[in-house]
Design goal:
Residues 104-283 form the Tyr recombinase domain. This protein has helices at 10-21, 26-43, 52-64, 69-86, 111-119, 124-135, 140-144, 175-190, 212-225, 234-247, 252-259, 264-267, 275-280, and strands at residues 151-152, 157-163, 167-172. It is mainly alpha-helical. It starts with 9 loop residues before the first helix and ends in an 11-residue tail after the last helix.
């Protein structure tokens, strides 16, 4: 959490303590506080005085002012924590219902586009970090959290500590990716950027890791330099990793494990964007004689 210069109210302090007790991620805490702050601004009074009708009208207000489904649901999640955990009055949320999110297909790059993007990275650190995102299918947060000791060249794995859902897992490490990592390690070590047991991709200071924002900026800069006009970010490389494996006939359950997905249905979305699979299907019109 970013420290505030204003004194905290007892109510906010209690909510912060409740979140800290449960070891919620800083970004989650910020999102929950943001939701309660929105309610207080709407009510123009303390949020703990809200009634069931107040909350219902607040949700209508969010809809009428153009809040996206993602923003609306995130706000409701924060309010649910506040009223259930901090106040112990979950019954006030009875008429607050999350909205259904529209299902969208992920943006996927072709193998040729991935190759161009990686080659266009501004420096070797960014190039190798993006190679890890694509070559191992890691999330941006997982890439920047890697340490030198997480690279296991004997077992050809990358150890992902406390990924999404606070779970450890192993990701694949291909020979090409290992070679790129070794090239980066030699350069980073010679420049004094790589500390023993330190971050695999340090930021400006060796003691700090590369940030997610810096990594996404690197993707955007590389995509622009490569002439790729699709809307891409670091997660696009993870989507491309899964899609390309599926197109190479890798079992979807294996891809599920590599991605660290809890449910197979989450992984199955890539079947909708694996265009190579679609091209192999013989349509029912093909066997018919020409008109």
């Amino acid at each position: 959490m970013i420290p505030s210069t204003q004194p905290l109210s007892p109510l906010r302090r209690r909510m912060l303590d409740d979140m800290r007790m449960r070891k919620l991620e800083p970004r989650t805490q910020e999102a929950y506080i943001r939701g309660v702050r929105k309610l207080a601004a709407y009510l123009k009074r303390s949020p703990d005085t809200a009634t069931v009708e107040d909350l219902r009208n607040f949700q209508l207000h969010l809809v009428d002012t153009g809040s996206s489904p993602v923003t609306l649901n995130a706000t409701l999640t924060g309010l649910k924590f506040f009223f259930d955990i901090t106040l112990g009055r979950i019954e006030l949320m009875a008429k607050m219902q999350p909205v259904k999110l529209p299902r969208t297909l992920p943006v996927v790059l072709s193998c040729e586009e991935v190759s161009r993007l990686l080659a266009a990275a501004r420096n070797i650190k960014h190039q190798v970090a993006l190679s890890v995102a694509y070559g191992a299918g890691l999330r941006a947060s997982e890439v920047v959290s890697l340490k030198v000791t997480d690279v296991d060249s004997q077992r050809m794995t990358l150890r992902v500590e406390q990924g999404k859902g606070a779970k450890d897992r192993y990701a694949m490490l291909s020979p090409v990716l290992l070679q790129r990592l070794r090239t980066w390690w030699r350069l980073g070590h010679a420049q004094g950027k790589m500390l023993p047991g330190g971050w695999l991709f340090p930021g400006m200071a060796p003691m700090d890791p590369l940030s997610i924002r810096q990594l996404n900026r690197a993707v955007h800069a590389a995509a622009e330099a490569a002439g790729i006009h699709k809307r891409v970010n670091t997660h696009t490389l993870r989507h491309s990793f899964a899609t390309h494996l599926l197109e190479r006939k890798v079992d979807i359950r294996v891809i599920q494990v590599l991605l660290g997905h809890k449910k197979l249905e989450t992984t199955s979305i890539y079947a909708h964007v694996a265009t190579d699979l679609l091209r192999e299907v013989i349509g029912p019109l093909e066997p018919m004689p020409p008109a």
